[in-house]
Amino acid sequence: MAETPLITVVVPTYNLGHYFDDSLASIQAQTYANYEVYLIDDASTDGTAKRVDAAASDERYHVIHFDTHRGVSVARNYGLDRAKGEFVTFVDGDDQLEPDFLSTIADGIAQGPADVITVGYNWGRWFESARAHGNGWQRVSKRAMFDAVRARGDAIGGYVWNKAFRVALLRENKIRYDESLALAEDLLFTTEAVVASDNFWFNPAVMYQKINRPGSTIHSATGEMRRTEQQVRRHMDELGRGL
């Protein structure tokens, strides 16, 4: 493996306004240089599309505009299908990265065989859960990783945005986002990746800042979406049997 592996960053955007400006700035401020970014605007109507275009001058940034609103899973799959990196990470376009986010991911890859790399995050009260995990890189067993993904508010969690996934493993196992889901698509994706993987590394250092934005999916989920989430969780339990 190369000492500085290429990392693909996939960023879907949809009507994010000024939140995207801060998110983009945090990506551009990365101390790690060997990365590419797919900025995929999902037919924004508030000017976000023009903000996305501002990044096009950097050849590492690929700017894509959907003609119609297709959903976050379609956008993420678009980037995943085109990823040239050894690992891929998925950043929400209203969140912010610490400057060493990508360099920490690369350091995790260098720990040894790695399929899924996880770093700490700050999301209000959930930050406290990360502090109990100590410092430095920790190898995580498959069962422990699955349980952490299944648990709500865990320092590892079922989120995709504080993780990086080995692209070859995703492609070999045909792991993609379920485009029929508007909620919990990240839980299902992460669970499928964990079930297919054997090598997990976790560093609780906070490298991802989760921003609470009014109007985001997690704040506007309907009752039907929540029921779908419960169905996803039941399917997750089925996938985890026998681990």
From TrEMBL:
Keywords recorded for this protein, A-Z: Transferase
- GO MF, any single term: hexosyltransferase activity
**The UniProt record lists the keyword tRNA processing:** no
- Where would I find the Glycosyltransferase 2-like domain in this sequence? 8-136
Entry superkingdom: Bacteria
Signal sequence interval, chain numbering: none
Task: Supply the Pfam families for this chain.
Answer: Glycos_transf_2
Known InterPro entries for this protein?
Answer: Glyco_trans_2-like, Nucleotide-diphossugar_trans
Query: In its UniProt entry, what is this protein called?
Result: Glycosyltransferase, group 2 family protein
Lineage per the UniProt record: Bacteria, Bacillati, Bacillota, Bacilli, Lactobacillales
